[in-house]
Amino acid sequence: MQCMICQSGMQYFFSKTFTQFDLDQVDYWKCSACGFAASKTHLDMSDERWARLNNDFHSQTHYTEDNPYNRNQRYFNQALMLSLMRKQDLIPAGDWLDWGCGVGAVARLLRDYFDLRLDTYDKYFTPEVNAVTASALKPCGHQLVLNTAVFEHVRDRATLNEIESYVKPDSGCLAVHTLVPENVPANPDWMYLLPVHCAFHTNRSMQLLMDQWGYRCSVYNEHAKLWVMFREAPAAIEPKVAALNKAMGWQYLHFKPGFMDYWK
Fold first, then answer.
1. How many helices (H) and strands (E) does the chain have?
2. Which of 49, 88, 94, 240 makes a 20 to 30 Å CA pair with 12?
């Protein structure tokens, strides 16, 4: 199997046995070059089985009040982070898009509490606010493309490239929420191995994606658990980050040229 990030070969890593959602043994493979790991079992599924797995999992976990995967505090912190970055002129005004938005929780918070519009698109859910159809998406047309809890569900490079393709090529920003460790652990009990998670990035694989897509620096906030990547030069972004951090009175945004590898 070939790595979707760097095209190097991947080798068998470890297996985990599930007892729900029509899953049994799941085999995870790892790229020796960039550390990216993926479930070969999930990547080999038919589109129909993959859609059924996602529907079954999210129908059981997404809407219940005691849902352990429902991150309402994170959604609010993401909306807050984006609004503060807009105020600091780190993210330009214009069309904003949440690709793979679920029901549109971040967009609703931005609308209700920060007077900002975030358009929403999802292949599997019906967003509650600002929904746009696939035909209305604007290639190279958005100043911000956000995706939260999406990268770990992506089974092919074409989908990653599609998400990024909606960012304006000069001044647009890409915001990504996923878990990015230094190394993916060879541990079947690792908490991120959910039945619908099939792709696991590392600091190295994310740096390669930034290089391939032309992003030059990034910031991270640990409460929002969100990265925002910029095509502008680090020298143009860093003073604005410093100004926001000074106003907040603490290191609200962590900045770095290249990928902000916060989780070592």
1. 7, 11
2. 49
- Collect all residues with Cβ–Cβ distance below 8 Å to 55 and sequence separation of at least 6: 124
Q: For the residues 186-205, what does the mean pLDDT come to?
A: 96
Which residues contact residue 185 at a Cβ distance below 8 angstroms, ignoring those fewer than 6 apart? none
For 133-180, write each residue's pLDDT tens digit: 999 999 999 999 999 999 999 999 999 999 999 999 999 999 999 999
**Hey, is 78 helix, strand or coil?**
helix
Q: How far apart are the first and last CA of the chain?
A: 27
Q: What is the pLDDT of residue 57?
A: 82
Domain boundaries, the chain: 10-257
pLDDT in the model for residue 60:
65
Which residue, among 99, 29, 87, 115, has the nearest Cα to 253 in the 3D structure? 87
CB atoms under 10 Å from CB of 197, counted, come to 20
Poorest-pLDDT segment among 25-39, 59-73, 76-90, 111-125: 59-73
Distances (CA, A) of 113 to 79, 83, 161, 176: 9, 10, 32, 22
How far, in Å, CA of 251 to CA of 106, rounded? 23
CATH topology of domain 10-257: Rossmann fold (3.40.50)
List pLDDT tens digits, range 214-232.
Answer: 999 999 999 999 999 999 9
Strand order in the sheet with 199-200: 10-17, 25-31, 37-39, 199-200
pLDDT the model gives residue 124: 83
